[in-house]
Amino acid sequence: MSGNSFGKLFTVTTFGESHGAALGCIIDGCPPGLELSEADMQADLDRRKPGTSRHTTQRREADEVRILSGVFEGKTTGTPIGLIIENTDQRSKDYSKISEQFRPAHADYTYMHKYGVRDYRGGGRSSARETAMRVAAGAVARKFLEQRLGIRIRGYLSELGPIRAEKLDWEQVHQNPFFCPDADKVPEMEAYMDALRKEGDSIGARINVVAEGVPPGLGEPVFDRLDADLAHALMSINAVKGVEIGAGFGCVAQKGTKHRDEMTPEGFLSNHAGGVLGGISSGQPILASIALKPTSSLRLPGRSIDVNGNPVEVITTGRHDPCVGIRATPIAEAMMAIVLMDHYLRHRGQNGDVTVSTPVIGQL
Amino acid sequence: MSGNSFGKLFTVTTFGESHGAALGCIIDGCPPGLELSEADMQADLDRRKPGTSRHTTQRREADEVRILSGVFEGKTTGTPIGLIIENTDQRSKDYSKISEQFRPAHADYTYMHKYGVRDYRGGGRSSARETAMRVAAGAVARKFLEQRLGIRIRGYLSELGPIRAEKLDWEQVHQNPFFCPDADKVPEMEAYMDALRKEGDSIGARINVVAEGVPPGLGEPVFDRLDADLAHALMSINAVKGVEIGAGFGCVAQKGTKHRDEMTPEGFLSNHAGGVLGGISSGQPILASIALKPTSSLRLPGRSIDVNGNPVEVITTGRHDPCVGIRATPIAEAMMAIVLMDHYLRHRGQNGDVTVSTPVIGQL
Amino acid sequence: MSGNSFGKLFTVTTFGESHGAALGCIIDGCPPGLELSEADMQADLDRRKPGTSRHTTQRREADEVRILSGVFEGKTTGTPIGLIIENTDQRSKDYSKISEQFRPAHADYTYMHKYGVRDYRGGGRSSARETAMRVAAGAVARKFLEQRLGIRIRGYLSELGPIRAEKLDWEQVHQNPFFCPDADKVPEMEAYMDALRKEGDSIGARINVVAEGVPPGLGEPVFDRLDADLAHALMSINAVKGVEIGAGFGCVAQKGTKHRDEMTPEGFLSNHAGGVLGGISSGQPILASIALKPTSSLRLPGRSIDVNGNPVEVITTGRHDPCVGIRATPIAEAMMAIVLMDHYLRHRGQNGDVTVSTPVIGQL
Amino acid sequence: MSGNSFGKLFTVTTFGESHGAALGCIIDGCPPGLELSEADMQADLDRRKPGTSRHTTQRREADEVRILSGVFEGKTTGTPIGLIIENTDQRSKDYSKISEQFRPAHADYTYMHKYGVRDYRGGGRSSARETAMRVAAGAVARKFLEQRLGIRIRGYLSELGPIRAEKLDWEQVHQNPFFCPDADKVPEMEAYMDALRKEGDSIGARINVVAEGVPPGLGEPVFDRLDADLAHALMSINAVKGVEIGAGFGCVAQKGTKHRDEMTPEGFLSNHAGGVLGGISSGQPILASIALKPTSSLRLPGRSIDVNGNPVEVITTGRHDPCVGIRATPIAEAMMAIVLMDHYLRHRGQNGDVTVSTPVIGQL
Asked: D342 to chain A: nearest residue by CA?
């Protein structure tokens, strides 16, 4: 209820601060009988891990996850899965300044107002480091969805500041440090990032996530529509400021005759809905897109106040991502996986397993 | 758990189909001692009501709400508030066609896949008629927030298809049938809608909602960030396809030096964050914006399939909104109110009442 | 979250005060396709109804339930089922005394401390009248469990004050106003109740509930054990002060060799566990027993205080049950049904439908 | 939702198997600013710890708890508190037998039916070892309740098989290995346990828990009554088969004139209600009592079946408690503390802090 859990039947509860002893997570409600080992999660964790290219923070974290419970003889048992990642790179440093100042556009000020105390080391609980556990939990959901239902969830960076990917070549996504699906734009992105780093500034990004093979019928009317839960999940990722499903804001200027996805026995003729009708999956690919703000940890000075309300000038040194969006693709995929997993179990609880009572039409 | 409830401490659970006997709602967790009568809700209900201008559906519903419990001698008692609106205009008509066909871009097809049965009369549970109860519940939250904390929640239509409001004059919002804050654009909107109606087509819209006077500290890390819950709430409104907080998708191409809202003892120097930092309210106005798709109920024929998978041509006759966004402003306000109310109670539960442990800086 | 909902997947939320306009309830999560009409609920409601014999309160309530949503063409649609019972016998009376005094052993004093206001008419929300909606919701669960899984849930009064039923003849339970399964004890009970009524006093009772045909596997470790949820459900019924599962308090003085229910391929050799092992159903009958306190609404004067803290003497006139336990059997059955229903859906969500992966052994 | 969480606002989620790598827990919703260290929990953990006398299992577990998050500079920060206890005494042994057989009256059979797989080492998740984490979490709640509200929670063993404590001398409770408040009965208990151990049998027990200083007003109508949540919490403890509040089953044969706790300006004249009226605390001490069954892990052979349904004779060797009730006192206290803590926060959320709107009368 205090917001550190997500999912109703596949429930992920996380703990941990950026510079605390460890990050951890409990997955409750995972179906039994799923083959699972640390390796299944490590692949996704490594994709999110800092320090894999010069374009992300140089903090070094092994991010090695350990399963503490819920798996026996290589299979999930249906009991809660306890996960832990020990923090290894907690560089001892002088926190006297940060403890007294509120960095602009950070959670320092709001945590202090909420709780009256805060763990100021590296942002504490508000650090994006927390998302490591989402990725680990998402990997479990993803494996189940793939094995059991054939669902495939993939994401990519579609915009890096002013640079927009114009081709969607899935093969390319993992060939560059940006998760960019358009190889032609990678050199431009590299140059842009190098200049930005030199400048000391940061930039926003847009990430798209696609789930294919989702059976029709997932999602609950009326408040827990599949798209509403997706919006919740994706907006809960650090730095996200916008979420679109399907046509998104593009539908503001669309006419109904264009937007409506006509159907034929062979399938839908378009997918402006993004795979969700009335909050329930239609069998088409689920399409989501998110905007990530530029990080506010800059070495360029900014105006702020201290804990006593006096004006100060803040400079953030240390190791930071100049574009937090770059590492966000695996996180967005993970949240999509958790939402779909949760809704699959919820659907199965009320309605029995997914079945085909009416003809499922083809996909676009 | 089946998605018909919203809110953890201020919990709104609704029921009712478009052409059923009644719509209803239970508000659980409302603080005791709030003066409340039907009139408090009726004003907002009337703003959402169909048939108030030629630009919305001509279905006539009195939408008269009745309080059945939880209020005694004019005040809330802390026990659940039961609300009901009887459906009056359930025009008897021939449903044989609609019962056999799936209207494109409607929930017909997905409800059928989910449940194997569906109430096809007027869209059943998937009808936007369900939002009447959100408006009623939102009015209770709004009244409490205003009286207890001085919070003011207001919305307006910022785009109608290709027409964009360029001025924000709150006085104008209720002077025209569009909730448009820019009087100069109203004639253009009227002409556009008249042409559209003649054409038989529909159009999308964008709605903005603003909450002023929100104390710093509301919102829960990490999954139930205030903005994540807002995204959930707003995306759960029928026809919404996108949600932005503050700068929204605009931050993709923003640099950090621009986006970060610098602070001085006199206040924040900008509000790109939209009043939320790290998922917690900062004391600045909360800014949200949503995209609503064009309705798919068109008298222009569209291709679809019937329940046996055969191709059909669908024409939707009857009374429909050519721009569902027009009536959406009160609904978006209501969802914002419910989210803030819920988070205020959640905050008070864990942390005690909102207090000022650090200086609250001025608002922009 | 404010306690007016029960069940995680089959969720029952109720509203309504004793002398308010109506009682109501929303059942969210009911599987689609169940044939359902008011008649299915009315039978159970009539068993709970006041005024059916001289041994219960003479308040006359038709307790006619009306389905407002969630059922279409005679079948549940999977959307929320709205139910309502209008209060008809709200005898206008002088409430000036009751509004100023706290009746001993009633909720008057505690509601006032909790909320600062209270609906004092007939106990308001704390009245046992609220249980009518539990019975209606329980009837839906019961019907599903019986049709889908062959589960049968039945209860009976095993003790009325000092008189104990010594035979369990299910045929007898509905042949007398006490739900007593031992016909020989009925005359004794009638005489006892007649004397008690003359005396102006009240008495406690014990009710047993049995569910047969429950498949093994229902119940969730570790906090939501089936027996823990049953204890919650049963203790939430007005006037209940104790709950036992299987041997209950009898096991305090039992040795392990006696208590353990040995198993053979033909079945368990005893059922001290009451059908629950490790919080999960074993396939044996679920056995629960509850204690109900004597009502405190007595015409014999009792010492109390008024709202200003002054001593007063309270006499409760009006129509009251001298043994609230008598009408509790259908309520206890309903709560058992709701718990089993909820756990069946929860089990199905995580694990798929109930199956037989290991031999199910016979029942005792 | 899969049952490994307890509490709505003070939420405890646990993981861990008897012979797995570790036990763990996340406490979400703890108020900020509470001084907290491992030592605060260790005292209670040590009271529950095995091997402290010859009357409990000789398994040696240090049960050393470590705080991984949520505490900074000695105080809680309001973010989730991660706790871990590494399992140290996982004696390697031959599990081939236990993996193929279902021990009678254990959860082996039901877990297998539920999940299709099970961690058979030491009972896996169904082991009472899981309760260590409840004790740790309960210690946090207990400290807050004591410091903030002056609430004191204490328990004792009132019956050990046929031996009943006849005096309640709180000083004695921690002077003997049984938590017995009657020093005169301790020699008898010791002799009884020695004989039982020789015999190879086990015995049940009764534990009472008392909370003093609870303010009036805690508890939520109607399903989450304070007593209903207590029943849930206490019945969820391993081996518990019965729960009583106040007079409990004693009220079956009580008359109303006796049961009703009359009030005077100086206080209540009795406490048959056990401190709860209408599900809400009255300001009197909360009184709960539970029955614990005798353990079924006996070296005396018992009849059972194996995983193929064949008859087998089961003998449980190894280290087991002949009376699991002996170590249950700290667990029952912990669950009482968690329930009260949760209800205090829930009350504060809806109603603001506990206040005295009407005179609080004296305690008995």
From this structure: A1
Give the span between the Cα atoms of B15 and C70, in whole angstroms: 8
Give the count of domains, chain D.
1
Give the whole-angstrom CA distance, residue D271 versus residue C53: 32
Any domain includes C258: yes
Within a domain: B357: no
| Shortest alpha-carbon distance between residue A165 and chain D (Å) | 39
pLDDT at D315: 87
Residue from B19, B28, B69 to probe the interface with C (highest C Cβ count within 10 Å): B69
Sorting pLDDT into bands at 50, 70 and 90, what band is A92?
A: low
Q: How far is B115 from chain D (nearest CA, A)?
A: 22
Supply the Cα-derived Rg of chain C in whole angstroms: 21
Would you say residue D317 has pLDDT above 80?
no
- Find the domain containing A285 and state its range: 5-351
Q: Evaluate whether residue B193 is within a structural domain.
A: yes
> A254, B228: Cβ pair inside 8 Å?
no
Tell if the CB–CB gap between D3 and C256 is shorter than 8 Å.
no
Residue C27 falls inside a structural domain: yes
CA distance A179 to chain D (A): 32
Question: Is the pLDDT assigned to residue A315 strictly greater than 50?
Answer: yes
CATH of residue C208's domain is: 3.60.150.10
pLDDT in tens, B199-213: 999 999 999 999 999
Percentage of residues in chain B having pLDDT higher than 70: 94
Q: Give pLDDT tens digits for B256-307.
A: 999 999 999 999 999 999 999 999 999 999 999 999 999 988 889 999 999 9
Note whether D31 contacts B352, CB cutoff 8 Å: yes
Distance between CA D299 and CA D303 in Å, rounded? 12
Give per-residue pLDDT as tens, A27-64. Answer: 999 999 999 999 999 999 998 877 778 887 766 778 89
Sign of CA pseudo-dihedral D249, D253, D258, D262: positive
Rounded CA-CA distance C311/D262 in Å is: 11
Mean pLDDT across B115-129: 92
**Is the separation of the CB atoms in D309 and C359 below 8 Å?**
yes
| Bond before B307 cis per omega within 30 degrees | no
**Which DSSP string do the residues of D140-181 spell out, in sequence order?**
HHHHHHHHHH--EEEEEEEEETTEE-----GGGGGGSTT--S
| Partners of D66 in beta bridges | D84
C105: helix, strand or coil: coil
Chain B residues with CB-CB distance to C69 below 8 A: 15-17, 20-24, 125
Q: Per the CB < 8 Å rule, is D115 touching A33?
A: yes
